[in-house]
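> call design_seq(struct)
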C-alpha cells in the first residue's frame, strides 16, 4: 500500500504542470506513493496534457473552480494513505524532497506531528543589488522617506519586473498599466532574477525621482553611480561574468504576527544557511507540506469558504488547538514560482488576503485580538479614502475609488460569512487560545 498521496491542485496551469509532475515522477523514495491532480475546471488544455504526458497520474475533475481550499479538500476527503502531501503546481521538488519530508514522522516525537512543511525557495537564482540614494519626504499626509520610483527592470533584454524581489526595499506598488511603479526607500536591497547565473548581465532600469539625484547601485565586486530626475528615464549598466547569484527563501515555515497578519518565515532573505536547522513552527505552508491524514480529517481539513490564501494558516491554528505540532524540515526543498496563479497585489489577491485574515482571526484568535482587527479595518478604509480624496483635491484630479470599493467588498463578504465563522469558533479545542498566541511574533 502506498505510504502517501501527493495532491496537486491545478487551474489553467498547463504551462506549469510538466515540470512539477516530471519532478514528482523522479522522486527517490524507499516507499510507494501516488500522485493525484485535482483540476479546477481548466480551459487551457491541462486535461489533454495530463492524458498525453502523465497517464499514470490520477485526475479528479471539478465542474468549477473551487480554489486552493476546495480543490484540495476534494482529494483530501478521498485519501486513504497515512499521509497526504500537498504540492503547488508551480513548485518543482528536489529528487529527495518526498523522502526527507516524511522522515520526521518516524523520528523521535514524530507522533506529535500533524504536518511537516518544506523549505521553499524561489525558482530562479538572483543577483543581489544594493541601492542607496538621498531621501525625500513628499510632504502632506505622506511622510514616507522615498528614494526613486521604479517602473520596469530588464535583464539581458527580458522584462523581469514582475519577478524582482524588492519587498525589503520598496513600498506597495502604485498606479496601473504603464504607470505602475514602486517607490523605493532611500536604501535597501533588490533581488533581480537571472536566467544565466554566470553572466555577464546587461541590466536596464526605468525610473524617476522627485528631483535630480544620484543613485548608487552595488553588488559583490562592483558598483555604479547613475542619475535620475523628475522625468522617467532609462539607465543601463553591466554586471560582469562571475558575479555570484544566490538562492532566496520563499518560506521556511509560516508565522502569525501580533497584529494578526500571516507571514512567511525567512521571506525574501538570501539563503545563507540560516534556515538549515529543523524546527517546530507555528504554521505550515500549503505550497509543499505533508499532513497526517488522521489529524487533518479530525479537524475537517481546509475551510472551503476561504477559497485561497490564509487557508493553510487557519488549518495550522486548528491543528494546534487540537494539540498537534507542525515541523519545518530544511532538507525537503522545492523551488517555487511565486504568485504564478494570482498576481501579488492584484484585486483577487488583496480581496482574499484581507477578508480571510479577518475570518481566520474570528475563528481562532482571542476575542480581544479578533475584535481589534475587525474594528480597525473599516476605520482604516475610511482613513485611506479620506487621504486619497485630499491628495486628489490638491492635485485637482478625480480621487481613486477602486481601492475603497474593493475594501467595501471585503467588508461585505466578511459580514456575510461572519455567522458561520462564529459557529466554527465554538468547535472543541484542547489548547487555549491565549496559550497558542504565545507563538505570535511581534509586529514591526
Amino acid at each position: 500500500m502506498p505510504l502517501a498521496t501527493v495532491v496537486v491542485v491545478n487551474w489553467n496551469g498547463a504551462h506549469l504542470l510538466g515540470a512539477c509532475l516530471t519532478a514528482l515522477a523522479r522522486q527517490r523514495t524507499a516507499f510507494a506513493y501516488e500522485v493525484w491532480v485535482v483540476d479546477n475546471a481548466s480551459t487551457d488544455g491541462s486535461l489533454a496534457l495530463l492524458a498525453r504526458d502523465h497517464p499514470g497520474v490520477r485526475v479528479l475533475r471539478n465542474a468549477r473552480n473551487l480554489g486552493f481550499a476546495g480543490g484540495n479538500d476534494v482529494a483530501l476527503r478521498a485519501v486513504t494513505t497515512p499521509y497526504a502531501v500537498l504540492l503547488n503546481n508551480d513548485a518543482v521538488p528536489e529528487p529527495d524532497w518526498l523522502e526527507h519530508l516524511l522522515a520526521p514522522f518516524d523520528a523521535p516525537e514524530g507522533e506529535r506531528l500533524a504536518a511537516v512543511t518544506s523549505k521553499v525557495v524561489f525558482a530562479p537564482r538572483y543577483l543581489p543589488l544594493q541601492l542607496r540614494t538621498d531621501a525625500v519626504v513628499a510632504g502632506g499626509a505622506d511622510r514616507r522617506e522615498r528614494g526613486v520610483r521604479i517602473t520596469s527592470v530588464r535583464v539581458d533584454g527580458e522584462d523581469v519586473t514582475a519577478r524582482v524581489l524588492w519587498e525589503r526595499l520598496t513600498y506597495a506598488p502604485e498606479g496601473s498599466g504603464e504607470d505602475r511603479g514602486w517607490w523605493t526607500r532611500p536604501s535597501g536591497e533588490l533581488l533581480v532574477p537571472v536566467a544565466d547565473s554566470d553572466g555577464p548581465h546587461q541590466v536596464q532600469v526605468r525610473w524617476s525621482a522627485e528631483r535630480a539625484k544620484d543613485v548608487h547601485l552595488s553588488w559583490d565586486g562592483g558598483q555604479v553611480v547613475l542619475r535620475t530626475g523628475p522625468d522617467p528615464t532609462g539607465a543601463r549598466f553591466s554586471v560582469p561574468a562571475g558575479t555570484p547569484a544566490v538562492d532566496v527563501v520563499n518560506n521556511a515555515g509560516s508565522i502569525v504576527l501580533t497584529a494578526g497578519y500571516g507571514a512567511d518565515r525567512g521571506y525574501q532573505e538570501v539563503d545563507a544557511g540560516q534556515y538549515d536547522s529543523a524546527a517546530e513552527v507555528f504554521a505550515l505552508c500549503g505550497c509543499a507540506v505533508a499532513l497526517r491524514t488522521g489529524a487533518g480529517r479530525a479537524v475537517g481539513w481546509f475551510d472551503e469558504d476561504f477559497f485561497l490564501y490564509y487557508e493553510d494558516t487557519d488549518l495550522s491554528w486548528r491543528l494546534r488547538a487540537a494539540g498537534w505540532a507542525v515541523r519545518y524540515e530544511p532538507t525537503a526543498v522545492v523551488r517555487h514560482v511565486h504568485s504564478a496563479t494570482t498576481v501579488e497585489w492584484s484585486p483577487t489577491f488583496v480581496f482574499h488576503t484581507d477578508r480571510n485574515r479577518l475570518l481566520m482571526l474570528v475563528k481562532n484568535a482571542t476575542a480581544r485580538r479578533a475584535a481589534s482587527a475587525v474594528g480597525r479595518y473599516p476605520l482604516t478604509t475610511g482613513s485611506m479614502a479620506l487621504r486619497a480624496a485630499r491628495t486628489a483635491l490638491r492635485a485637482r484630479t478625480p480621487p481613486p475609488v477602486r481601492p475603497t470599493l474593493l475594501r467595501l467588498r471585503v467588508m461585505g463578504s466578511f459580514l456575510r460569512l461572519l455567522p458561520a465563522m462564529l459557529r466554527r469558533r465554538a468547535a472543541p479545542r484542547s489548547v487555549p487560545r491565549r496559550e497558542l498566541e504565545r507563538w505570535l511574533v511581534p509586529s514591526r
